[in-house]
Design a protein that fits this description.
Aspartate Aminotransferase, domain 2, 412 residues, Aspartate Aminotransferase, domain 1, alpha/beta
């Protein structure tokens, strides 16, 4: 018998029970939380792991010989090992903790990027989050390098031929998202990585919108840098990860100076710490790392593949239903997407729409989603965006549809 046929059905009601916040109400209405792409809610397992650490293990790490500091250090470094296994990295030396995806990208730009000079090129795509645009603009302004942008089409898909055509021996880095936060588009990352490497370019992959929805194996992907944020992965805010191959990190100078990234300091000379600590100046977000480890444990216990299948079924159902709403336009209908639907409703500004949906207990994101070039491409000032997670259910979709009907009533 096929092993998949013997697996129990995905029990979304049981999953929802793991998230205390979903039992709350908004203006007397059931909460339909459809903003997971911005920040996923946290399961009780994560909340309790952080609480246990704060109650019984908190101290500064790496610097104390007393027992509490040793416990905190063990928890923090244990979280690093958990992330290593999650990504299938070769060593904990390849796992750098940061404040989030944004800081991870800036670290690469400010450290590895120092080697760029006039005539060098950085290639990104039209669908990037601002965090994967602005650091490269700043780097190019400082070094004289050139920023190039690969186009997308009306479906919100990357023009892969144009991406390949923009690569050249001058391309030093190709930095691109794995999944568009504004459109949900899944990019052809393997083909893009291979094409960039063929011209000798390094690759940075923004996995912020991917790690909670599909299994990531950095060694199998073959990219040079991989970045993501804890809070997209059902973990605490304020923590991120930069992964890079050990040989790459060893060749990069520190970005920030201070405590814990040093071995010795004198007024004449400073010697830097070993990997990964040379990139982790100052006291880290210890409880955040503990929470991230718990979030990874939780997601893997659910089964990432099963979560993905659940979200894809919801995406198909919601897409069919929204297409039937009069005056509604879905922005971005790529063939391969994650559980993100951006849309506009004729005659209603997305911000007004978001306010009405909130009155009906429906939480969606409205605005440009830190992807203003995407809005420019589709000639819209903003969109409403519904995004799904492991806890999203059919009732959330039904509530969204009813709320859209209410918006139609309000605006005639």
């Amino acid at each position: 018998m096929n092993a998949e046929m013997t697996m129990p059905a995905y029990d979304v009601a049981r999953v929802r029970a793991d998230f205390p916040i979903l039992a709350t109400t908004v203006r007397g209405k059931r909460l339909a939380f459809l903003d997971t792409a911005a920040s996923a809610q946290r399961p009780l397992a994560v909340i309790e792991a952080v609480d246990r650490y704060e109650r019984s293990s908190h101290a500064n790490v790496h610097r104390g010989v007393y027992e509490l500091s040793q416990k905190a250090t063990d928890a923090f470094e244990g979280a690093r090992e958990r992330v290593r296994r999650f990504l299938n990295a070769a060593s904990i030396k390849e796992i750098v903790f940061t404040r989030g995806t944004t800081e991870s990208i800036n670290l690469v730009a400010q450290s590895w990027g120092r080697r760029l000079g006039p005539g060098d090129e950085v290639l990104i795509t039209w669908m990037e989050h601002h965090a994967n645009i602005v650091p490269w603009q700043m780097l190019c302004e400082r070094t004289g390098a050139v920023l190039k942008v690969a186009p997308i089409d009306a479906r919100g898909e990357l023009d892969l031929d144009a991406f390949r055509a923009l690569l050249s021996p001058r391309t030093k880095l190709a930095a691109f998202t794995q999944v568009s936060n504004a459109l949900g588009t899944v990019l052809p990352i393997r083909a893009m990585i291979d094409a960039a490497h063929a011209v000798g370019a390094m690759t940075l992959l923004d996995g912020a919108q991917a790690v909670a929805h599909e299994r990531v194996d950095v060694r199998a992907l073959g990219c040079d840098f991989y970045v993501f944020s804890s809070h997209k992965l059902y973990g605490p805010t304020g923590l991120g990860v930069l992964w890079a191959r050990e040989a790459v990190l060893r060749d990069m100078p520190p970005w920030q100076g201070g405590g814990d990234m040093i071995l010795t300091v004198s007024f004449a000379k400073t010697t830097y710490n070993e990997l990964p600590y040379r990139f982790e100046a100052g006291t880290p977000h210890i409880s955040g790392a503990v929470g991230l480890a718990a979030a990874i444990d939780y997601l893997e216990a659910l089964g990432i593949e099963r979560v993905h299948a659940h979200e894809q079924a919801l995406l198909a159902r919601a897409t069919r239903a929204l297409r039937a709403v009069s005056g509604l336009r879905i922005i971005g209908e790529a063939k391969e997407k994650t559980g993100v639907i951006s849309f506009t409703l004729e005659g209603i500004h997305p911000h007004d729409l978001g306010t009405i949906l909130d009155d009906e207990g429906v939480a969606v994101r409205t605005g440009h989603h830190c992807a203003m070039p995407v809005m420019e491409f589709f000639d819209v000032p903003a969109t409403a965006r519904a995004s799904f997670g492991c806890y999203t259910d059919d009732a959330d979709i039904d509530q969204l549809l009813r709320a859209l009907g209410r918006a139609r009533e309000v605006f005639g």
